[in-house]
Structure formats: C-alpha cells, structure tokens
Amino acid sequence: MLDGLVLYRRMAAASIAAQLRYPGTFVLQAAGNFVTTLLSFFGLWSLFHRFGSLGGWDIGMVAVLYGLVNVAFSVAETLGRGFEIFGGEFVKTGNFDRLLLRPRSTLLLLLGHELRLRPVGRFLQGAFVLAAGLHLSPHVGWATVWLIPWAVAGGAALFLGILIGQAALCFLTIEGLEVVNILTYGGVEAGQYPLPMFGRWLRRFLTWAVPIAGICYYPTLVMVRHADPLGMPMWFGAVSPALGFVFLGVMVWAWGRGVAGYVSSGS
C-alpha cells in the first residue's frame, strides 16, 4: 500500500513537472478554462436576474449548487485523465498489455498516467462561485460548512467512478463512447439546478443510480437551511455524499471484471 502511494507520488510529480516546463501554456490553458466555465454561470445568473427566484431557490442557493459540482468535477478531471483516454490510447493500441506486465494495480498506473493541471481553472471559478453563493444566501448555517469538503470528496469519487466506468466499457467497445459524456459533462450541468426541476424518473436516477443529487443538492439544502420540497429529511444531506463512494466502489468492481475478461486487441 505504501509502495503504491510512493509510486503514485512520483508519477504525479513527474506529470506536474512536465506540464510546468511551459508555464505560459499552463497559465493560458488554466485561464481559458476559468473563463469558459465561468461564462456558463452567467447563463444561470441571467435567468435568476430576470425572474428573481425559481421554486424558492435564489441565485445564492443555486451558486452553492454550481460551485460544489464544478469543484468536485475538476478534482476528478485532474485525477482521471488516464481513464478518459483509455480506449484510444491503451486498448486500441495494445498499450494496456504493457500495464498488465507491471507489478502494480492497473487503476494506480492509470491514475498516475497524467495528473492534468488545466482543470485548476474550473476549480478556482467553482470555488469562487461557491464562496459567493454562501455569502449571498441569507440563511446559511455556518456550522454546517464542514459539509463542503465532504461533498467535494464524494463528488470527486462519483465523477472518477464515471470515468472508470467509461474506461471499463472500452473492454467491449475498444474505443471510448461519447455517449458517456451524458453522465460526465451532462451530470455537471444537471447538478447545477435544483432537483425538483426534473421529472420523477430523472430525480430518482440522479439520486440513486448516478447520485449527483447526493453530492450537491442535498448537502446544499443542509448548508442553506432549505427544506426539501420532495420530502427527504434534512439529515440525509449530511450522509448523501457517501453515495459517491458507493458508486466508485461499484465502478471499481466493474473495472476488475473488465480486466479479468480482457483480450488484447494487438498493436
């Protein structure tokens, strides 16, 4: 276990050092990521500027939702680059065979493949919007802001699980399926809005199948002291981020099944 952590630290350090050899490129990429993702928030802001509030939700409360889901996704995007490119870079080319020859977990090796720094732009703008939302929300329970790191950790686990699941599908499809982006980027978009805005079947899907609501919507309810119109008890928001880790565990199991049945595509 400790050897694995030491190896991952070395791979991560090498990846970071390689990206920082061109600091100008890194700064421009991070700044571009910051600006482009922040522009999406202005779409939400214009909606609430025009109508004031929607279903009892104002711009401050929605900003907390937006911030949580974007910060969590940026962490997963930083860690999961190896799984995102897995089909084209490893399965299709046969390079995954080389990973199997190494005496380390394939999950660890892919996590250390590239620690991408560009998502720091999304992380910073998400954190900025989250802080602004907490400031603007009139009923924030400051004793509950400990939920922020817990929700971010659960969200990062959830999105990393989606990326691992996407990679596991490549054992069947060879190349990655763009349709999975419905759960990654589409999940980020869905997480930015209050859950009651969606239909019943989609609410259940976002709560129990791919629990995006568990890592942003329900913790936000606790932090801003807003009763759930769907009837879920307030305490659920304090434990719901654990659903992200449960989802990650399921995807890790699916990954193990995929590796066990892997047949090389050659080179």
Fold and architecture overview:
It is a single chain. With 267 residues, the chain is mainly alpha-helical. The protein has one domain (2-260). Helix content is 70%, strand content 0%. The mean pLDDT is 89. The chain crosses the membrane at residues 26-48, 54-76, 148-174, 205-222, 234-255. It comes from Tanticharoenia sakaeratensis NBRC 103193. This is ABC transporter permease protein.
Entry keywords:
globular; 15 helices; mainly alpha; 267 residues
Question: What's the helix and strand layout?
Answer:
Elements lengths: L1 H19 L2 H29 L7 H21 L1 H4 L1 H6 L4 H6 L4 H6 L8 H17 L10 H27 L11 H7 L8 H10 L2 H4 L1 H7 L12 H4 L2 H19 L7
Helix pairs in contact: 2-3, 2-8, 3-8, 3-9, 9-15
CA-based shape: globular
What is the number of helices? Answer: 15
Number of strands: 0
Largest sheet: none
**First-last Cα distance:** 32 Å
Indicate how many domains the architecture comprises: 1
- On the 0-100 scale, what is the average pLDDT? 89
- Which class of secondary structure composition applies to the elements? mainly alpha
- What is the H/E order? HHHHHHHHHHHHHHH
Taken as a percent bin, the fraction of beta residues is: under 5%
Helical residue percent? 55-70%
Low-confidence stretches: none
Rounded to the nearest angstrom, the radius of gyration is: 19 Å
Brief description of this entry?
This protein is mainly alpha-helical and 267 residues long. It is 70% helix and 0% strand.
